[in-house]
Amino acid sequence: MVAFKRPDGRKITDLRPMTAKVGVVPNADGSALFAFGDTIAIAAVYGPRLLHPQHMQDPKQAVLRVNYDLLSFSVYERKKPGPSRRSQEISKMTEYALSPVLDLKEFPNTVIDVQIYILQADAGTRTAGINAASMALAHAGLPMKDLVCSVAIGKQDTTVVVDLTKEEEDFHEGEGATDFPLAKIANSDQFTLVQLDGNISTDLIPAAIQLANDACAEIYEVQKKALKEGALQ
Amino acid sequence: MGMGISKNTQEAMKTLLEQGKRFDGRKCVDYRDISVTYNVSNAAEGSARVMMGKTEVIAGVKLTLDKPYPDSPDKGNLMVSGDLLPLASPRYEVGPPKFDAIELPRLVDRSIRESHVIELDKLVVKAGEKVWTVIIDIYPINDDGNLVDAAVCAAIAALRQAKMPGITEAGFPDYKNRTKQGLPLAKEVIPLSVTIFKLGNALFVDPTREEAEAAEVKCNFGLTKQGKKYMVHSTQKTGAKPFTQKELETSAVLIGEKYDELYDKLKKVL
Lengths: 233, 270
Fold this sequence. Notes:
The complex is a heterodimer. By secondary structure, chain A is an alpha+beta fold. Chain A has helices spanning 85-98, 125-139, 166-169, 205-232, and strands at 18-22, 30-36, 39-50, 63-70, 110-120, 148-156, 159-162, 177-185, 190-201. Chain B is α+β, with helices and mostly antiparallel strands. Chain B has helices at 7-18, 99-115, 147-161, 209-214, 245-266; strands at 34-38, 46-52, 55-66, 77-82, 124-126, 130-142, 166-167, 173-174, 192-199, 202-205, 217-226, 229-238, 243-244.
């Protein structure tokens, strides 16, 4: 392969330096911070708690309710506070990404609220948010089958790379940039988030998924380590 | 994914689909018949109606003159909106949009935008000051499943048929005196959508409403064909069940085959 230079000198398989910490919101039942380089997400879990209004309750299982948003000053052009169609979509996708690992049937008529906010955005915010939320759910002591790990695979022209920055997302040469955020159940082949924007040949999709598998294995170790450290405090 | 069908129907459907069979006799990977007609409204710059089985979706294209966005002063704008009208299904209600109604135009937007079929840099009247905004509005008229695939067909058909409005002396759009000139499109780029649905272990395409409600999860792909390669421009998995790595790899092959099939059905009318 031709030597491919990334702006920050990373190899194509390198994630940005990760930071992970639990217990960042003492009021919450569980909370966590997760960062990929300059992208920082915090997540707080409240619940399971009784869901109001009552007609929204599900007598068979808990409702997982995710709210993802960017803080207004997390991006250069100030983001108007409040939900947008983008944030509503990402919230929904995050619910789908996380719910397969939870035992929702254990808590009928309740809601598990997951609040995710992005403090600083440098691409990959939904994946950082999912990693933080997955840790926050574990930190809350909820019964879970496994952790969920998430990473955005990207493509610059025809090279598939791991964990794009904003600068890399704005790449316009050749085939341009592709953003392919994925989440998976850690010790499995089950993908719980699959989104894509850009321009990628179907031939490259298996390779991109393989990169995600390797990156998620690294993320999993970081999440686990932070959870263990949190438990000792 | 909805709750409009009984558990028994879902179970029966799952058993059949896992054997490769469907209630209406199609195979898992078969699309229904598709037809496209034009001129839903002569007030629109372009409009099209797509029938996919009993699903009917219309799309209209309108152009307005606006200021460009600060981050793209030398480009026109694209906007996709739409609504799930209570006209189209007993399941839809008046009121603020539910998630399905938010997702449909967003998926159409991404499949059109990321394919770069619209040459936005050719929609500039005066750089930094005045550009055309292309607005695609999508309305399902009868929802019998697979709205997104039908909506992307309708959108691209309406775009290809649309004609630029004139500009009055005062600098406003002249909708009554439309020019003969089409929109600046990359003619060889045909974005289409293929959505893969999953129930149990079965993957299938183009569900009826009943099948769509029985499905546990779906994964939408917007794609084009460039030479011999199929380029994916947008993807979104919707639903709480995961897709396995193998299912994603199978889907990546299947969407290319389905693209060719849809394109063959549509090329005469696009």
